[in-house]
Amino acid sequence: MIRTIVWALGILGTVLLLQTTVLSYFVIFGVKADILLIVFVVLASQNGSFPSQIVGFVLGLVIDTVTTAPLGYHAFLFSLAGYLFGLGSGKVYFDPLIMPMFLGFLATFFELIVGFLLNFVFQLGQPLSAFLHIGILIQLILNLLLSPVVFWLFGWTKEKFQNPRRGFGG
Amino acid sequence: MSPAGSPLRHLANRYRRGLVLTAFLVSSSLLILFNGTPGVAKPQEIGLSIFGFIQSMVSGTVHAAGQLGGSVVDLTDLQARYQKAATLLKKYEGDERALVQLREENRRLREQLFFHQSLPYFNVAVEIIGKDPSKVYSTFVVNKGYLDGIRKNLPVVATQGGVTGLVGKVAEVGLTSSVIQPILDANLFIAARIENTRHEGLVTGKGNNQEVLTMSYVKKASLTEVHRGDLVVTAGTDSLYPADLLIGRVMNIATKEYQTSLDIELEPVLDFSRLEYLNILRSEP
Prior knowledge:
Order of helices and strands of chain B: HHHHEEEEEEEEEEEE
Oligomer: heterodimer
Strand order of the largest sheet of chain B: 1-2-5-4-3-12
Largest sheet of chain A: none
Distance between the termini of chain B: 68 Å
Structural class of chain B: alpha+beta
CATH architecture of chain A: Orthogonal Bundle
Mean pLDDT of chain B: 83
Helix content of chain A: 55-70%
Number of domains of chain A: 1
Largest sheet of chain B: 6 strands, antiparallel, barrel
Low-confidence stretches of chain B: none
């Protein structure tokens, strides 16, 4: 399990770095796709709840340390997301299109709702307009469209490198 | 294993997932609750120093790769031309191409240098190397930090098309990088005034990447004097920002009968999605 956690953190750290540097310039109507969140959901749905909540907590703390978000904000959000999205691991059939799109949509929606609740409960000072504007709709659509691609990419990579087929006998 | 420890261990194993989740959620909540206290603020500074360094390395590598890619494209182009014309002519064409690029780069750098020198305040020119990954917080990471004399709360400006405007302030300082909190952030409040009527108000963002600002607490009596397109500048009364730095233009004026002040929507003078270089103002050299 430690290996799974380390691998997931390595991948997510790289995606975080790319998202804050290279990918931050790829914007559509002023909005960028949240690839980090999609990759996190993919890994959670592959690895299960327990490792994913640990990965989520550590990743969240890293995000909190490099942004002006209060320390603990993303840690809370990602550890809960890791737990919830990991619950489906091994129990849900992942078709190539509908399920990834549904999870991408759900994750974006989840991030908004939990973010809004944290903001409300801890009085973080963000107005309602921060969670409710047209850019969110565009991002929901972007995440919805990107999810199947990311799911396919990770599924393919896992199949190719983690479970190589071998001959039997001989 | 002691007989008394066994059932406890069994219970802990059974509910391990829930217990760990609860521990994470409780510690996250505690961190949020105690956010801002000295002991909690420190990890953010350390994290920023490390991550900012890695970000600048990645940005540099990507920039170099982009240049390499551009060079390969240029080379292919030159080779295609080489087959059509004489070697000497091709060489000159290649030189001319490089010259145009250098001139363009020179022009941009001159503009930046001119701006850097023309500012009436001591300032440090910085480059944006990263942007905030989250939806709600819209900060930039720049390539200079404590070692370059950057300190928390210093005002940040930029120029675009000859217009110099306020970008925001320094929110966090790492060793070699800093986080800039832009005026689009809902937690940044700036004392401002309408340039021609001199009415004062408080400008803040809407907390996301929407490039719209809100100016509140403007006296209702000014309704007939304020018009769309009027410029809004810093008031200079909060001792953080110098006076008369451009913030935005009046876009929309709203008033309600029961309110004693106006709510004015502003369009920032700067296009935040196109910002590359910024200048951090300092009170001393």
